[in-house]
């Protein structure tokens, strides 16, 4: 069995290992696809729930299908009421291998996490991205940022608040954010320079908008905080904070932009907050968001 750093050194995506709520589900899902008589099958959450002893929640299904798509063993087939209810064409044997790898990875991640976690969830935990060339074992004591952001998004029930100056049109980031509105979660994004920013930002915001089913687009609100000094022409103020808040329950504050480099290769460091500080962060976000200029999508 592979342990510790070897998992973090690899290019594996941990969406399934971190996002599916019960390790037994990973085993059941692996066995389901192993037992398929056809090479490719179309599945959705309802079909899987009819075939499994345990039940996939919406969050479980979103993690599963996102991970299979990112592993290139599944493609979206039909849309549903929410992303968790979409159907996908899945390659059975490769999917079974992916799920077995994710099952082992989950065990390794839980083993590494157990070494450093206290018996109760602390009010603040470190989360980070590291350059893949840095392999010291101490890094396994810090939560992986990209997985934590996905877990934050997938775990939200009613409202996600995001402040970030820079976005990439990364399919996984765009898909994660678009899936929020598609499953009924209101989404507020505070950014900057939407009138003159790089094509990456405009493309990312438009891709999020286009990834949301038309009846759900009213749940996405975007605002722009950026102003130049009228006399000098220099920047007077702008969005520079990097924040993500789910339901006023958990809050990420850190250095990472929502870009490929920040979420995979840079040294980025932040904290996951719970408790009273999240309420304060929520109030601060809402105050600044209400002050900022409304952005009409698509740009």
Automatic annotation (TrEMBL):
It holds the Pfam family PLDc_2. SUPFAM superfamilies: Phospholipase D/nuclease. PROSITE patterns: PLD. InterPro entries: PLD-like_dom, PLipase_D/transphosphatidylase. Residues 235-262 form the PLD phosphodiesterase domain. GO terms for biological process: cardiolipin biosynthetic process. One of its GO terms (molecular function) is phosphatidyltransferase activity. It comes from the Archaea. This is Cardiolipin synthase. It comes from Halalkalicoccus paucihalophilus. The gene is cls_2.
